Structure formats: structure tokens, C-alpha cells
Amino acid sequence: MRKTSARTPKTAEGERVLILSAGVGSGHNSAAAAVQQACAARADVAEVQVLDVLQVSSVLYRALLNKGYFVLVEGLPWLIDWGYDISDRPFRRRGPMDPWTRMNSVPVIDAIKRFRPTAIVCTHFLPAQLLASLLLRGVTNARTAVVTTDYDFQGLSLTGAFHALFLAREEGRVELMALGLPSDRVAAPGIPIASQLTAAPSRDATEPPMLLISAGASGGDYAAAVVRQTLHMRSPFTATVVCGRNDALRQRIEHLVAPAGDRYRVLGFTTEMPQLLRRADLFVGKPGGLSVSECMAAGLPMVMVNPIPGQEVRNGDYLLEQGAAIRCNTSATIGWKIDEVLREPGRLQQMQAAAQRTGRPEAAADVLSRLLEGPFRPLVVTRAAQKTILSASEERVVATDLSGPSALVRLIDSATGSTVALLQAAELEDLQKRYGAPDGGLVLRRSQAFRSLRWEERRLLRAILRQDDTLSVRVQRSRPHRMVPQSASTGPRLPS
Prior knowledge:
- The chain is α/β, with parallel strands linked by helices.
- It has helices at residues 27-40, 59-75, 77-86, 99-104, 106-115, 125-137, 170-178, 221-230, 247-257, 273-279, 289-297, 311-322, 334-343, 347-358, 363-372, 383-395, 425-435, 455-465, and strands spanning 15-21, 45-52, 119-122, 143-147, 161-162, 164-166, 186-187, 210-214, 238-242, 264-267, 282-285, 302-305, 325-328, 379-381, 408-413, 419-424, 442-445, 470-477.
- The strands form three sheets. It has a six-stranded parallel beta sheet, sandwiched between helices. The chain has a six-stranded mixed beta sheet with strand order 5-14-16-15-18-17. A six-stranded parallel beta sheet has the order 10-9-8-11-12-13, sandwiched between helices.
- Pfam families: Glycos_transf_1, MGDG_synth.
């Protein structure tokens, strides 16, 4: 991942980093801001720009993707769950972008051409899919990273061309390698969060535990129900309730907790959230990707309530595995469950230690370093290879153990050792006829006959040759995956 090509396109002034996000919720933009902060700490970054791709899209497109999502979360959560599952298989959709999305991407493409970035970081799958198309068309030569912002890997984040794919946890990386992705292009540094330059306030063991209750993006009745349940707790505690920009909810909760005196502190929008996370003993709220990552980095265990089906439920599953959270499936038991944690000797401290082990506070800096110091050439996954990966995912097959025409083959840059292409064995035969070398490798060439090549072959060569006329690559065929039992009919299978 950290090997660098001899041809590294850096301007004399330094790196120009463009960070592309999409404001569906706040998490993707928060991750973008964290990477922007990491850029400021590097001397080799001359300029950085952050762009929310929805903000330059049409009003209708933005409303359907952003507001429409939260309407479904509130009214039809089962549909969100179904949509998450149906789109989870990698490369389920392998064709070009639909006309409406392509039309709304024009301002983003114009912004890329104006800024002339040397590196692009995508914190949402929408710009990631667009950048894959631009890399294959030769519109940009920038190193491109795709950053996931939830603990569970979601198939929409996997595109046909990228330089680096950054996941939140090692299990996602293992999954992608089993499906055929090369290990030198996939890493698991964690979810990028803003770093804190001030010292963390120490938790006073003599004071009662402090609960930090977050109303979440929508707040409303559920947030009020959570606070109401804490009024019935028997354990000593204090609580800070953060209502964000929802003034009506803040006033409602202030009225609700007034009889409790100074036990509760109710806030609207606040810039003190990082300090509050580090001062609190237990977080009560939704397990959104950035909220979870910030809590873990602060060593703050969670009481998870009202998760959005799909990504938030899976975030919660991971924290439960780590011992860093409990989940409340109904608001009626929230007070009782928190009481159980606070009254059991040593349990809160064990959960705090688990959260500390799970946290990745340096993820943003790690993402940036791995991208800027990584390969110059992108990894291209051909349409045929995408089909193999999708089939392996649907059949729960370890793709690297497949044989025959649909087996996966890697092309390795002979100079740097980085994987530059993932293709089917059948495609390799065609390349060997045209570009075969005596040592069994290939010498890819940009020739006068370039335009006579098939469309898929042109895309492959254009993306990985970059400004070079030739590129020597060696061929690496699939290796056996010895840890998985064999099946006589369909090959080795992943666990159900």
C-alpha cells in the first residue's frame, strides 16, 4: 500500500487535495472535515478543498437523496433495511451512471477540472462512483481514495477504479480479500474523526457518572422518551442532553427535566461536543458511524437507541461484539438498562476499556498518509472481474479459489509491486496475444492501434498507463484459500 511509483505527479507547490462528500446526514461531511484537518497538519499539502456534491446538484436531486432518506427512516424503516440489503452485494450494478445522476454530476466534474487535484478523497459512494468513471475515461490523474463511514462494509462503496479503499475494521478487509480484492489496495484504518488538540479533561471518580444524551439528527418524540426514562433511574448520575438545532425539542426537554433541579443540563447546538464526549461516562444515542467512531476514540461506551435499519444496526452489532455498548430495543427499558450498567461493580469501567481498545483516533491522518504515499497508478477492476466478484458474493464463494475462464487474475506493476488490474482469466488470454512478453508477463503499450481496441481494453489501458507509453506488468493468478473447506460442486464457500 505504501510503495510509490517512480512517476509521482506532484506539483512544485505540493499536493492539491480535493475532498468530496455528500450531505446525507452529517457523518459523511464530518469525515470530510476530519480529513481536511489532517491535510492542514502536512507540509506537503499546498491546498485543500471540500465539496459536498449534493450542494451543487439540482434542488430536486438533493431533496430526494437527503430529505427523502429521512422521510423513509421515520415512516418506512423496513424499506431502508431492504434497500441496504439489496444494494449490499458488490458490483450489483456494473453499467454506466443513470442519465439523471450523470446530469447532476456535471458541476462536480467542472469543479475537479478547475481545482486540478493531485489527490481526491471520497467519503460517500456517490462521488466515489463518479470518480471511477473519470479515472477510466482519463479525465483526472489524481490519486483517489474511497473512505467508508460505517463499521460494516457496504457494496456501493466498491467501484471499478480507485487507488485505495479505506474501511473501518479489519473484518471488512478480510471479506473483500476473500472476494478477490488485492490486499495492497484495501486497508482498515478506521473512520476519520477530527483530532483534538487540547488535553482531555479527566473523569472525576468521586463524582456521579455523567450521561451524554444525544437527540440525533431528527430528535423528536423518541429523544424525549429517552430523557423521560432516565428520570426513573435509581443510580446517582448527572446528564447533559444535546438537542442540536431543534429549539422546540430543547424547550420541551427543559420543561420535562425542570423538577430534577441541576441534575440535567440541556443544550442546543454546541461546539463543545468533543469535550463533552471526553468528559462523559456513558453516551446515550443512535449508533451512526461518526458518532460511534468519536465515542470509541474518546473511550466512551454507548447505550444505543433507535438505530436506523441497515448500517446503524450493524454498527451496533460490532460494538456489542467488542463489549463497548449495550442496546435498548424499546424506550420503556432505557432507564432500567442504564441502571444495570451503573450498579454492577466494574462493568462501566470494563466497557470504557473496550471502547478505548476499539477507537481509532488517528484514522484521518492514516488515510491521508496511505493515499499520498501510495501507488500512482489506480487499480482497475474490469467489468468481467466485477461479474466474478458479484457472483462470488452471492454464492458465498471465496473468489480467489475459482478456476477456469471466470477466475480472477491480477496484473502487478513490475516496477512498484502494486496491483494495477483485476480481470478474468479469459480476458488475460486476449491480452497475452497482443502484449505477451518472453518472461510470461505483459508489456502494455499505447500504440497507433489504440482506438481499434475493444472498449473495455481501451478503458483498462488508458487508466493504468496514465502518461506512459508502455508498462511492464507481471501476472499473478489466483492462490488457494486454505482456511476455507472445499465444496465439490461450487468451490470453497464463505460462512452463511
